[in-house]
Amino acid sequence: MGNLFANYxxxxxxILFVIGFANLLLHKNLIKKIIGLNIMDSAIYLFLAQKGYIxxxxxxxxxxxxxxxxxxxxxxxxxxxxxGIVVSVSVSALMLSLTIRLYRRYxxxxxxxxxxxxxxxxx
Amino acid sequence: xxKLKSREEYExxxxxxxxxxxxxxxxxxxxxxxMKPQTPVxxxxxxxxxxxxxSQAVRDKVYDIENNKSLNFFHRVxxxxxxxxxxGLAVILLAMVAYLPPTGEADRPVNNEVSARYIESGLxxxxxxxxxxxxxxxxxxxxxxxxxxxxxxATTTVLILLHRKKKNQDGRVEELENDRLLEPKRDxxxxxxxxxLVPIIILFGIYxxxxxxxxxxGGFSGGAVIGAGLILYLxxxxxxxxxxxxxxxxxxxxxxxALTTYCLAKSYSFFTGANHLExxxxxxxxxxxxxxxxxFVLNICVGMVVACTMYTFYVxxxxxxx
Amino acid sequence: MTVFQCVLFxxxxxxxxSVSFSKNLLNSVLIYMSFSLVxxxxxxxxxxxxxxxxxxxxxxxxxxLLFFATLKKIHAINTRREQEKKDVFQGLNEKNVGEEVSRxx
Amino acid sequence: xxxxxxxxxxxxxxxxxxxxVSPVLPExxxxxxxxxxxxVVGALSLALLxxxxxxxxxxxxxxxxxxxxxGNEIRAGVLEAGMALFFCIIMLLSMLGGAHKxxxxxxxxxxxxxxxxxxxxxxxxxALVYTNDIFTAYVFVExxxxxxxxxxxxRETGRTIEAxxxxxxxxxxxxxxxxxxxxxxxxxxxxxxxxxxxxxxxxLAANDLYAMPLLVTIGLISSGLAIKSALFPFHAWLPDxxxxxxASSAAMLSSLVSKGYIFLLVKLIYxxxxxxxxxxSHIVNVLFVFGLMGMIFGSLSAIRENDIRRMVAFSxxxxxxxxxxxxxxxxxxxxxxxxxxxxxxxxxxxxLFISAAGLTDVSGGSRRFEDLTGAGYRDPWAGAAFTAxxxxxxxxxxxxxxxxKLLFAQAAVQNSGxxxxxxxxxxxxxxxxxxxxxxxxxxxxxxxxxxxKSGRQFAGRKLYVAxxxxxxxxxxxxxxxxxxxxxxxxxxxxxxx
Lengths: 123, 322, 105, 497
Hints:
Chain A is mostly helical. Chain A has helices spanning 8-26, 30-52, 75-106, 111-121. At the A-B interface, helix 1, helix 2, helix 3 and helix 4 of A face helix 3, helix 4, helix 5, helix 6 and helix 7 of B.
């Protein structure tokens, strides 16, 4: 259990992940679900970015021609997170447009209500 | 008495206006700057009623407890299971974090020969001063190509969902979905600040894109900034002006051109790399704007795609066509 | 730095929790917006300015704009007039919705 | 390097380029470009497969100028090439078979967009099959999810949009878990390429370092991919998504999208964890149990269903249960059976969806069983195809389903611990399968009143029949000529290690 306090940032990321996950799973309202999704993704990126962080080292942009490992943090996680952010923004745009369409048709955002409606329509 | 001006003449001078303004007798900005009261856009009473009634009808049906016992039961089980799952997940994940290597220290598995090479010879091999950009656009370019395809796929799905037909027989539906009727008209503060801000924002976006290999940022962030600038322009000046600037054809041309360039450039680079051929792309002097070979071109392509995509998302959400 | 980071992390958690407990959708979107903004500061403290720029432009900028456009479409941002009408209608509801509506039309 | 080794790279780039070009093409051109690309990619994969069978060893292909731990790689072996070929065949047949429904069910101005999505789906599937890098795999998993969502909701009815929302929510939960697992794994190993990760994982496992996080990553990754491929308790989105989308979408979703995820899981098991490490964790047992439950409950739901498309969809839940049972049994033989079942289920399920579309067409568009009575006479080809698919699902000899059940049974017998539950559930599930599929087939061939005019003519009818025949041939080939294919799968899995 020794590293839990040293890894407090990662612990925070995990808590955020679970909060977002629970929002996505439990909330009835679609908008809240989407916010939960975004929080969940941000949490994963936070977790990943801390993997690259090394205390006392600088931004991975070559300054003054110094090219030693001791000068910069690990650039890989930053690159991965950059890719990930794009993915999550595309996914949330898609989810939001689905929300609009769903609302236009059923005038509600509650998935349970919609599925009951569908059952009653008997399509 | 010839020095004295007549009252009419005096009223035309600047000092008169200044003193009058100072006295507060007349505020020159009255009626010029403040938001004019919008012509109230009436959602027809009937539609509001219909909407409310529809949602009420839905609720009546759904919360009909007697007929919905099974649903109720299912719902309770689902919520209980979900809560148990989440709590379990939290405990497991926190326990796992306790066993992970400590953050912020240098001797962790992540800091191995891979990142060392990116840092130590990234500048020579890719020509990019910003190591992150060099990594995502050269060492691991396939990911980034996939990422721009994610954006492309997302735009396609958003177009499927929200793009309306040009001609709609049912006029009422059209009005409801299209909120160009609701947009603010002639808001002087918004327009004035937009006139100043939009060029600056777009210039900043272009700067971020062009300096992607030298400073923080790159195609994606710069493109998002340009997209935000375009959205501000749209919100300030209304759809009619924005439509002159940005059409469906422009969107298609730009995204097609950018993605094709991206695809061809990367294919060339992958092909030569895998077959151990010389790529013949000069890397230039590190630190100059025109350096780092393909990365510069790719950043511009990504920037254009992202700017178009972001603007398209917003326009589709607001009114459903370009 | 550690104290500063702890404060930011605390803020993130508070934001994330309050999103799920806020009643109003507009509020939760605004809270999410501030979540993103704080996140971009966290990126700066983690020495990743690339991420900070991107997060600020995308998370706090574009995504929130899309959220607002959606809220407008699903009538979650009520204009005052609409709210009044809704209140009137709710009043009707308490009596008997179906009859009232059918009588009026 | 021989030129033929470029083929995986060409296939991925070609299909992506197809997606990029499609928006600016006219509709007919987009359709033909799409078909041509699928055919060409299939041909390339066939050539690659033959080449690899000849040389008998796999190779890695650098994506860029940088070698192994630094650059990005794809990897081609017998199993990958075979999968790519098979996916292309299924996709081509599904597109041909569903072409006439596409015209009626998708708005005219949105058909171009459909072809974009199909091209991108193909590219993402190919990338999932060939990739040697876990983060690339994640990015393409997301493309797969988004395009699959597009395929579901392109037929814009309330049902499909609701199904798409449910699908997206489930998928995103899965993606979240998957990505978290991959991140932790990256933290433990420090590499993103599968080959390098494998060495590190073996080192960690041998020295008993980070045992607990490693176990958690196995759990996260397998549960994420299981959620995405609709394993039993997470299948709520599936019936609506498969049941109401347009015919070719349903065929591709059931046979390709979920199979892509499962293939990725198999690949991660072999290429990242190594079979032994994965087997020593107890996650396999969880997968096994959920697989068994899926086999039973999927079939039970299918029996209660009164809608032919939804019934076939529920049967998918049961079949995915079979595959996870194979993975969960934790032996090499069972794994081969599982991978073979991926092929056999893909071939059969898309056949069933395409033929069900034809059957409902001749029954006035209704999917209820009452209205389908006698549909086998009204559209003989669709009836015959449905019957063939049903026989294969039940596991009648000569068809592919029989071989996979045989392989599962063999694998179960060799595994002493899990023999009894596996065999019992296999038996029960086969009986249940027989009940609902035979019920349907008998209904299709029950005469009602005077025999109606058979074989309604419509534009694209020939294409439709050709696709059905193609699927039936594929099924029978898998059923009759199974030994070389099973050997090939064994060889391919061997190459993974």
